[in-house]
Design a protein that fits this description.
alpha+beta, six-stranded mixed β-sheet, 2 helices, 9 strands, globular
Amino acid sequence: MKTTSKFPGYAAAALACACANANAVSGVDGPWSILVGGTVPSQTTDGYYMPILVSSLDGTTPVGFSTKTSPGKKQLLLDTPRAANDRAPSHKRMELDMAPCVRYFVAGKKFAPASLRWVPEVYRTEAIGECVAEFKVEVKLPATIHAVEKIPGK
């Protein structure tokens, strides 16, 4: 069955409209920040990092692993993923002051490879190129950010 459209430009116009609406729904009019969960640093081999889920960003539930938001102080609720044979997820709260035009990658940093104790950590930040170009923002990348609870000896 052939699926060609009688209106060739319609699909492109619909996609452009959907993208514009997605940006409008996010509520971000100026420079934005992005929070990314569900990842771990690719260079680590010590087993101390685990992917975590962003359950809440300022009281709202994000859709997906990457969330676009306005810059500023944010309240995060982070959870460990639940496996079939695991206990219930463990929750941690974190306050993060997000700079404009910066993408933040967050993971759980365990106390030891087999430990159940962990703290949330922003393990990587990077400038968002299209945001910097559009708003001419000078980006100063922050260092690694831990939650209030620190890992002993670090």
